[in-house]
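explain this:
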Amino acid sequence: MKIFKIALVLATLLLSACKETPLYSIDGTATDNPSSVVRVREGSMLLRGLDGKSWDTSKIPNMFSDFLYVMKPGTHTLWGMNIQGGHPLLLENLRCYAINDVELKAGVVYRLNEDKEAVRAILVREDTGAEVASGKLVDQKAAYSEGCNWK
């Protein structure tokens, strides 16, 4: 019985590793051809706006799953905010960043991260880990406040 449980757990892990990562278009771009679009994964930051517009994240079925945002290639401005820690005694301020005028290439997967020590947002290529762009802090508020003001 114990071997059966171990086999079941291993099979579940293998199946979940093979599933496709869901793609969510944030600018109306079709998601059926990944080589023709830009894909952005949230790392240690949450992506919350593109080219001066924020969007309703309630349309994403599971915010805690692994997914990729999809957009058209070209020059974009990305808005991001740090991920708030969940510990009530170690509250972190909400930090909001803008990465302005970054050239994003089709077929590339990027990851959005925060460099807490340097207080900046970083966009890296997932395939090489190379930093593509960085952005500066544009707003900071008390922990779990109403949201970012990028303007």
